[in-house]
Amino acid sequence: MAERLEDLNLPNAVVTRIIKESLPDGINIGKEARAAVAKAASIFILYVTSAANTVAKKGKRKTISGSDVIQAMEDIEFDQFIEPLQEALENFKKSQKEKKDATTKRKQQKKDDEEMEEAAGEDD
User: Fold this and answer.
1) Does 30 have pLDDT greater than 90?
2) How many helices (H) and strands (E) does the chain have?
3) Which residues contact 79 (CB under 8 A, 6 or more apart)?
4) For 75-123, how does the pLDDT look when each residue is reduced to its tens digit (9 = 90+)?
5) Which of 68, 97, 99, 117 could connect to 55 by a Cys-Cys bridge, CB 3.0–4.6 Å?
6) How many whole angstroms separate alpha carbon 75 and alpha carbon 52?
7) Eight-class DSSP state of 63
């Protein structure tokens, strides 16, 4: 757990980027409004995390999963976010699988190359 409430704040650069990407061109946001959005986002994250933790505990688990977060969103009546969240979760899983497959392929290629070098060295 964070020792101070301020430790739970999101990085300003991240909040600013998200705000800028969500606003139309030419619209600016004041420093006070940006701070308010950042605080609201932090509170929302704590709320969802707490609800997801409750879901995990009901399942007698200590680790919160993506499906726990989705169930929590339903429990706290944020149904409009469930479908986009499910899509984002699927995209994340797909991305992770692609990274893992690429790493496995690189390792196998390296192993194959080393075996070929070894075999070529024995021929000499």
Assistant:
1) yes
2) 4, 0
3) 73
4) 999 999 999 999 999 999 999 999 999 999 999 998 888 888 877 776 5
5) 68
6) 9
7) S
